[in-house]
Structure formats: C-alpha cells, structure tokens
From TrEMBL:
Subcellular location(s) of the protein: Nucleus
Protein name (Swiss-Prot/TrEMBL): Methyltransferase-like protein 22
Subunit composition and interactions: Interacts with members of the heat shock protein 90 and 70 families; these proteins probably are methylation substrates.
Keywords: Methyltransferase, Nucleus, Phosphoprotein, S-adenosyl-L-methionine, Transferase
C-alpha cells in the first residue's frame, strides 16, 4: 500500500516568480483580457514612450527610479523651480542622488518647518487638523467603515481598453499581452526590465538597426522585437512553446501601428536552443519556410537576447546556439545581450552571490578565448548612460554586452581540429 504524506509534510509542487515590471505597475493598469490554453490569466498592459527632452537627457544609468509615480505639488511660497519633484525612491543609498535632489530635499524640509509652525496654537502645542465629519450622524451600533465605490470594467469585443481606444492608435504606447506570476519555465510570458533596457538601446542606436535583418533569441512577449521592427527591415522573433508564440503573435498584431510607418516586418518563429536545426515541419504553426531560412542566413547581421540568463543549462544552450548561428550566417554579425545582475543570499556560500550572472560572464570569457577557428568573438560591455525612452524602473544592475563576430585574422584551417565551446 502506497504511503500517504502526513498533513504536516510540505510538498512544493511549483514555485512562481513575478517580474518587477508587473510588481510595481499600479493595479488599475492591469486588465485581464482572456485565459490562455493553459488556463493562465492573460493581462494587457501599456508601456509608454518618453519622448520629452528631459527624459532623453536623464539616462538613469546610476540606478534612478523611473516609474511613473504621482508627485505632490510644491507648497506656495517655496522657490523650488529647478525641476519637478521626483519619487522619494530616487537616489537610494546616496549613489545616484544628484545636487538637484539635495536642493529639492532642502525645499521640502523648509516647507515642513513652515507648515509645522503654522499648525501650532497660541500655547505652542500642535493643532491637529481633523477630517470633517459626515453631514449625517453615523450609526454608532456598527463599526465605522470607509465608503466603497466599486468600478465595473466593461469590455467590448473589439475594444479591450474601453474609452482609450483612440489613444492606443498613437505612437506613444506599446500594448503587451502577458501573464503575471508564473512557474520558472513560463517566465517568458512576462515582461522583464532587461527587455525594456535593450529596447532603450535600440531606440538610442537606431541607425545601427535601420534597414537590417535582426534575430531575437528567447523573445518572450516580443516587446524588444517590436521596438526593433520600428527601425529594422525584418525581425525574426523566436522562442519555444505554441502558447507563448501565439501570445507573441497577438502582441505583434496589437502594435501594427508602430511597425507600419517604416514597413518593418516581424516574423514569429520557433527556435529551440536545445536542438541543432530549425523547425521546418509545415504542420507546425510557427515553422520555418525555405525562404525564411535563406533570408535568415543571407541577411542577418544583428542578434538580440534579453533577460534569458537565469538558468545555467539554458545559458549554455544559448551560447552554443549563438556559436552555431555565427558560423552559418554569411555576414559578420553583432550579438547584443541584456542581463540583470540578481543578487541572492545562498546557503552554499553563506554570502550574497549572483551565480547565474557569474556563469553568464564565464560563458562570455570562453567565447572570447576561442582560437584556431574561422571566426573571432570580441566581447565588450556597453556603457549604460544612454537615454531612457520607455517608462520603467532602470536600475544599476542592468547590463548590456556586445559580442562582435568577425573573421579571424590570418586563419589557417587545421585538419581535424575545430574549436568548440566547453560548456
């Protein structure tokens, strides 16, 4: 007879993770639109472009908080005209705090002192301003409760955001369908800061992507591919899983107004890092045609990957895929990789470490040290002091790495000896 677990025995079936992008998004900006084929709720969120001059000059590379946070009005009589007030989270721990932030804090302190002096009575005691009572006498037989005014969300068939349909057709927002908390194997269905960070770089270095053919590995919801398609000619948006790819295809359709002006084309295709070849089964919904494969190998010059370095086995698989693709492409290419350095306290080290990031850096070193082959891999970090074009929290743990793939100088083929990654 099989042993049944006791009631006090805890069995962990799955752990779920939630992206900080969704964690810090106000609840009123989350709109559930449907259930996917796995029964997971799918939400629709908007990510706003920042086109103002102030946002372009403030990069936030030192870890500033760029969330859309409501600000309080400056009290009358206080001259704080240097800039609008910022979130109190900005400049945490003193590293990213500017002189402007100190001047604002001084103004706030002055306002507090004057406000406190105005609230003292004739004896010098604090005069507390109380909330005005309701017009009718409350019923003292029941405990007091705040009034609740529920809001009923209605959804039309062709209008998932109600009265804001006209706003969605503008070039100010990207609309992304995504899930919320998911198991680790489904994190591609969420939006991560690294994808927004890489999108910022694309908009900053738009001339590097203009008219190019781009391949994104592990595209997830497709946000980075969408931004790349605003300047690139063709973008291959790749990942695995029919449900994820269908969500990505839906996001492409939701944002056709962004890619249409530049005639950018986004093709959603399946690309499994654990397999050597591409899926060419015509029965598969996101398979590769012969024309796709020919165009991919003949014209691709830029490869992208954002926030896919969280599992060592998958990191190894991605670098092997990058290595294989680099040898099949007819042109020299550049891979741009986005990663967030996540710090965790581990019992094995009894210290704060970042094992996934350390393994990622180790793979970069191995790739750069390869010798004897027809290609040379040059690795360099990207300066993060470029402007921010999308509203999100840019932290100093976000990094970009660039891998330039070029023909090796004076390469002489050695029979029977082919360099390979030892991953």
């Amino acid at each position: 007879m099989a042993r049944t677990p006791a009631m006090d025995e805890v069995t962990f079936r799955s752990d779920t993770v939630l992206s900080d992008v969704h964690l810090y998004t106000p609840n009123q900006r989350h709109l559930m639109v449907r259930l996917n084929s796995m029964g997971q709720p799918v939400f629709l969120s908007q990510f706003k472009f920042v086109w103002s001059q102030n946002a372009r000059t403030d990069s936030g590379a030192k870890g500033g908080d760029h969330r859309a946070v409501p600000t309080e009005e400056t009290p009358a009589g206080i001259d704080c005209t240097q800039s609008p007030p910022r979130s109190p989270r900005r400049g945490r721990k003193g590293k990213g705090r500017s002189s402007e932030g100190f001047s604002l804090q001084a103004c706030a302190d002055t306002a507090c002192q004057e406000g406190a002096g105005a609230q003292l009575d004739e004896d010098g005691d604090l005069d507390v301003v109380r909330r005005p009572r309701a017009a009718s006498d409350p019923d003292h037989t029941v405990p007091p409760r705040d009034k609740v005014h529920p809001m009923i969300l209605t959804q039309e068939e062709d209008d998932v955001l109600g009265d804001k349909a006209q706003e969605n057709s503008t070039h100010d927002v990207i609309k992304i369908e995504h899930t919320m908390a998911t198991p680790l194997e489904d994190v591609g269905k969420q939006v991560w800061r690294g994808a927004l960070f890489l999108a910022d770089y694309i908009l900053f270095q738009w001339d590097l992507f203009q008219g190019r053919t781009v391949l994104e590995l592990g595209a997830g919801t497709g946000l980075t591919s969408l931004v790349a398609a605003t300047v690139a000619q063709t973008v291959y948006c790749t990942d695995v899983g029919a449900d994820l790819l269908a969500m990505c295809q839906q996001n492409i359709a939701l944002n056709s107004h962004l890619t249409a002006p530049g005639d950018g084309v986004v093709k959603v295709r399946e690309l499994d890092w654990l397999k050597d070849g591409l899926c060419t089964d015509p029965k598969a919904p996101f398979s590769w045609s012969e024309e796709d494969i020919s165009d991919l190998y003949s014209h691709t010059t830029i490869l992208l990957a954002a926030e896919v370095f969280y599992d060592d086995d998958l990191t190894d698989a991605l670098f092997k895929t990058l290595y294989r693709l680099a040898h099949k492409l007819k042109n020299a290419c550049t891979a741009i990789l986005s990663v967030e350095k996540r710090l965790n306290f581990t019992l094995s080290h009894l210290d704060v470490t970042c094992e996934a990031y350390d393994h990622f850096r180790s793979c970069l070193r191995q790739l750069e040290q390869l010798e004897g082959g027809p290609l040379r891999f040059a690795v360099e970090p990207v300066d993060a002091a470029f402007p921010q074009h999308l509203v999100y929290e840019r932290i100093q743990q976000l990094e970009l790495w660039k891998v330039r793939v070029e023909p090796a100088p004076r390469h002489v083929a050695s029979p029977g000896r082919t360099p390979r990654l030892s991953l």
